[in-house]
Design a protein that fits this description.
Layout lengths: L27 H15 L9 E5 L1 H12 L6 E5 L15 H16 L19 H5 L3 H12 L3 H12 L14 E7 L6 H8 L9 E7 L5 H4 L1 H12 L2
Parallel strand pairs: 1-2, 2-3, 3-4
Helix pairs in contact: 3-6
Length: 240
């Protein structure tokens, strides 16, 4: 952004580095509390305006949690292909109670996978039918995602998958005072534009100041499939 903005890049330990304390126990709620403390200590307490927060996937859920629970710390929120309650992707009528057993079983399976240390870098396209293929349309995007998956600690990814799945922020969205921009992916080979819009946008009904942008010809990693559109959206967002 032409050197005009101070960027704070936040990453949860266990994604390409040592998991540390994230190797066991809850991760999401402690992370949100620590992130709020960081924003307070490093930004707002130093006389700066509340920051613009951009979050993809779990990061989007985290941004919503900051916006709802610490509204004074969020200037505006950009949510990238994320939902207040991911359970509705499985069942539109899902509740935390109905999703929890499935989420636990899937998380247990994820924990049983080899650790990142046992894996080697991936250089070949894993293909459109792979897990990475569900997340990116481009071969280079699939390779990038596959390496992100391979480099992550399975204990951390499993725990966060579970916590993400059983977190329903919809009842708290009315507490968000910051403007919210949603970017969400659409691949016409999987779902019609009308269907994907109905999957995403109504979930944000509780947000007072809400806008949405559907990004065509993309899957979950919008920034890999449509980098020009994504970068333009980010630039417009931070310059608002």
């Amino acid at each position: 952004m032409d050197g005009k903005y101070r960027l704070h890049l936040v990453q949860i330990r266990g994604f390409g580095d040592d998991a540390g304390v994230n190797g066991e126990g809850p991760v999401l709620e402690p992370f949100v509390a620590e992130l709020a403390d960081y924003i307070d200590d490093e930004i707002t307490n130093k006389g700066r305006a509340a920051p613009a927060i951009i979050g993809h996937s779990l990061g989007g859920l985290t941004a919503l949690m900051i916006g709802a629970r610490y509204p004074q710390l969020a200037g505006r929120l950009m949510i990238v292909d994320s939902l207040p309650f991911i359970g509705t992707m499985v069942d539109p009528g899902a509740t935390v109670a109905t999703i929890e057993p499935r989420a636990k079983a899937m998380a247990d399976g994820m924990r049983a996978r080899p650790s990142a240390a046992a894996r080697t870098p991936i250089t070949a396209d894993p293909g459109p039918m792979s897990l990475a293929g569900f997340m990116s349309l481009r071969p280079e995007g699939r390779i990038a995602v596959a390496n992100l998956i391979a480099g992550a600690d399975s204990r951390v990814t499993a725990q966060l998958f579970y916590e993400d799945s059983i977190t329903d922020m919809r009842p708290e969205l009315a507490k968000i005072s910051a403007p919210v921009l949603l970017l969400y992916a659409h691949d016409a080979s999987l779902m019609s534009a009308d269907e994907i819009t109905k999957t995403f946008e109504p979930q944000f009904a509780g947000v007072a100041n809400f806008k949405a942008q559907r990004v065509e010809n993309s899957r979950h990693f919008i920034m890999l499939d449509q980098p020009d559109i994504f970068h333009a959206a980010v630039k417009a967002f931070v310059e608002h």
